[in-house]
């Protein structure tokens, strides 16, 4: 450990180590420091690095560009909050991610270089992919050409075949987790949601493959979740194949196939398989995506009895040299013209290591300038970042879901009223705009009830009998009044 702790910090370290043993099954589980890792556990401090822009942010971690001061080597440094990990019982997940990454060796999978820790955080130094995310390429170009999409999809398939070959399910394949090297080749990243199968051919925690998921525990990202996950079925390799189909669709069209206004509507479209192809999709692309997005995971191309051989032989991939795919020239990367050429040199962080337990959260925030954060913050679309009520909204009775939905919309109306108060004090606000906000402010309760009525029509009536529906609606209506 690079930074020791005394007093309260020391107690925090002991508590973390104790919970590590409990969450991993006590003394029967092999500890990290007794395993011969390929990626060493170093005695570094965060002060040994110059921190640059933020690559991405998750529910309990952030990934930043970090340059080692003595060597000049650049890494993608994943910083994880120990306090949050312990509180949310995520230690086994972090350990599994570390163990799996350490044993994977494929040019299409992100490489773990080393790890270290201090009193407040765990750190994973990953190879830095300076080409950015595939998502950024799709955004900058609007959509990719079929040749570009074919190349990237082939490289993802090449990496997934290796990953599935050792019995690991990624469970969060999406353009944001497909990183590009400077020469334009794909690497799969973010292994925080991985699930080993029972016959996995790599060393994992003894209970990692056998522990059943909690009912209706969503892992992944809303727009890429397969229908069987929404029905609480166990994870399979078909989960990644479905996400591959969604990703290929997004490459070719510029948006995900089941995109909608809310997670609820996305889930409904996924279950109904409401799949619509743009006219410019080729017949080969339509056929491939159609077979990747089969509602039966065992029938998806690549997940069936013929495995990846059947997927590679699809006409869409005609002309791909699978043996030399990593040596083939990659598509030219679109450059972000809005960012300066030397932004990393001018935007290093001033990271202050906290000296007390109470200062830990603030010190670990490591916030750069607001403009830099807005420029480089990744989309927070992981299901792990969703509100817990949002998960219950889909898993439990739709009556409860509707109530939650109403609550969210009430907050939007309230925000409109607060905005009105601000603009009313601002002389620059146009008179017509002030009058409009006056109307919203005075009548937001009426709008709130109107929204309640619309949600009642949409969600209650199709699910329960008419008499009970009206009873529940007017009961809730009268309470709010």
TrEMBL record:
Protein kinase domain location: 49-317
Reaction(s) the record says it catalyses: L-seryl-[protein] + ATP = O-phospho-L-seryl-[protein] + ADP + H(+); L-threonyl-[protein] + ATP = O-phospho-L-threonyl-[protein] + ADP + H(+)
Classification via PROSITE patterns: PROTEIN_KINASE_DOM (PS50011), PROTEIN_KINASE_ST (PS00108)
Any one GO biological process: intracellular signal transduction
UniProt protein name: non-specific serine/threonine protein kinase
Keyword S-adenosyl-L-methionine among record annotations: no
Molecular function per GO: ATP binding; protein serine/threonine kinase activity
């Amino acid at each position: 450990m690079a930074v020791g702790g005394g007093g309260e910090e020391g107690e925090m370290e002991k508590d973390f180590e104790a919970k590590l043993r409990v969450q991993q099954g006590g003394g029967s589980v092999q500890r990290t420091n007794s395993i011969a890792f390929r990626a060493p556990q170093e005695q570094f401090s965060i002060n040994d690095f110059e921190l640059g822009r933020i690559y991405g942010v998750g529910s309990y971690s952030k990934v930043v560009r970090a340059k080692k001061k003595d060597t000049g080597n650049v890494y993608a440094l994943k910083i994880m909050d120990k306090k949050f990990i312990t509180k949310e019982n995520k230690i086994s997940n972090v350990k599994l991610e570390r163990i799996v990454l350490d044993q994977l060796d494929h040019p299409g999978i992100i490489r773990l270089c080393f790890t270290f820790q201090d009193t407040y955080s765990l750190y994973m130094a990953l190879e830095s992919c300076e080409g950015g995310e595939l998502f950024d390429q799709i955004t900058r170009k609007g959509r990719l050409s079929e040749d570009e999409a074919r190349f990237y999809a082939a490289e993802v398939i090449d990496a997934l075949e290796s990953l599935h070959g050792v019995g690991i399910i990624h469970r969060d394949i999406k353009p944001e987790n497909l990183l590009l090297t400077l020469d334009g080749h794909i690497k799969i990243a973010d292994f925080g949601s991985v699930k080993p199968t029972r016959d996995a051919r790599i060393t994992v925690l003894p209970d990692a493959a056998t522990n059943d998921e909690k009912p209706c525990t969503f892992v992944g990202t809303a727009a890429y979740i397969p229908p069987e996950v929404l029905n609480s079925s166990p994870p399979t390799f078909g989960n990644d194949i479905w996400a591959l189909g969604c990703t290929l669709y997004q490459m070719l069209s510029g948006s995900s196939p089941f995109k909608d206004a809310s997670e609820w509507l996305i889930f409904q479209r996924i279950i109904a398989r409401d799949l619509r192809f743009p006219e410019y999709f080729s017949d080969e692309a339509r056929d491939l995506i159609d077979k990747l997005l089969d509602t039966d995971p065992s029938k998806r191309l690549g997940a069936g009895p013929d495995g990846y051989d059947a997927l590679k032989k699809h006409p869409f991939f005609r002309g791909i040299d699978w043996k030399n795919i990593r040596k083939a020239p990659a598509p030219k990367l679109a450059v972000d013209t809005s960012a300066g050429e030397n932004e990393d040199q001018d935007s290093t962080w001033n990271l202050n290591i906290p000296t007390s337990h109470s200062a830990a959260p603030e010190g670990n925030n490591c916030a750069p300038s607001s403009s830099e954060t807005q420029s480089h913050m990744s989309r927070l679309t992981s299901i792990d970042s969703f509100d817990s009520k949002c998960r219950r909204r889909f898993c439990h009775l739709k009556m409860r879901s509707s109530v939650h939905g109403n609550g969210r919309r009430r907050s939007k109306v309230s925000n409109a009223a607060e905005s009105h108060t601000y603009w009313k004090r601002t002389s620059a606000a146009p008179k017509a705009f002030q009058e409009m906000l006056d109307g919203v402010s005075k009548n937001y309760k009426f709008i709130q009830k109107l929204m309640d009525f619309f949600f009642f029509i949409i969600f209650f009536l199709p699910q329960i009998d008419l008499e009970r529906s009206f009873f529940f609606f007017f009961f809730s209506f009268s309470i709010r009044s």
